[in-house]
Amino acid sequence: MNTFIEGKDFWISYNPFTDKGAETALCRETARPNYLILLGDYTADFEPLVSQGYDACLEKFKQLVNDGAEMSGWSESLDEEEDVQVAPGIWQSKEDYEANRDYDAMKDGENFV
Asked: If we measure between CA atoms, which residue out of 11, 9, 32, 40 comes closest to residue 82?
């Protein structure tokens, strides 16, 4: 069962039961949604910063990663310039976008049934 810490226009989500163990996510819904996810329970790191806003929590997220916290495979990239908007409100890593584009180009050149 997820628990949430609500901030202004963002939230921290903690899920103790994922396939990789616990995950803590820094989330917001904007024109470009963000779901930055760490493996482990980092709620104690974020809780005192929620009142300071999203940017303070984002800086803490970056610090935790720099200090060795592992990002989940479900997390979006910290480098926003590496993400590509593929449809309104839908973003994809540049790497995934290029792989999908290459696959589509290859598929278009062959006769798939």
From this structure: 32
